[in-house]
Every structure is written in structure tokens, then in C-alpha cells.
Write a structure and sequence with these properties.
By secondary structure, the chain is mainly α. It has one domain (3-63). Helix content is 75%, strand content 0%. It is rod-shaped and about 80 Å long. It starts with 6 loop residues before the first helix and ends with a helix.
Length: 64
């Protein structure tokens, strides 16, 4: 078995892997930026997360 016989397949496999991994990295980065913009817009509008304490609850705790 001469390794040179399979060199084309090996190079193509590595090239395809690099393209796919690169595309996945780009997709994740673009999605992250889009999510950050969406969260910033919601924050600008004053929409809060469910897990965040409501302002009324914070005021009640301060008064107690």
C-alpha cells in the first residue's frame, strides 16, 4: 500500500473538515452577535428577564 495513492482523499477530507468547522465557527459568531443585539434592544425597551427580580419585589425588600 503506497500512501501516495490515498493522498488526494486525505487532503480532500482535511479540506472539507476545515471548511465545515470554519463555517460552524462563523455561524456561531454571527448568531452570538445577533443575540447580543436582540438582548440590547430588549434591554433598551425595558423588558426584563423572568429570572431577574422585579423592581416591586426589590422595593418591598428594602422597605421591610
Amino acid at each position: 500500500m503506497d500512501p501516495a495513492n490515498h493522498m488526494g482523499f486525505i487532503v480532500a477530507a482535511y479540506a472539507a473538515t476545515l471548511v465545515i468547522v470554519g463555517a460552524l465557527i462563523a455561524w456561531v459568531m454571527l448568531d452570538y452577535r445577533a443575540q447580543q443585539r436582540t438582548l440590547a434592544e430588549l434591554d433598551r425597551r425595558g423588558v426584563s428577564r423572568r429570572s431577574a427580580p422585579a423592581p416591586a419585589m426589590e422595593q418591598a425588600k428594602e422597605q421591610a
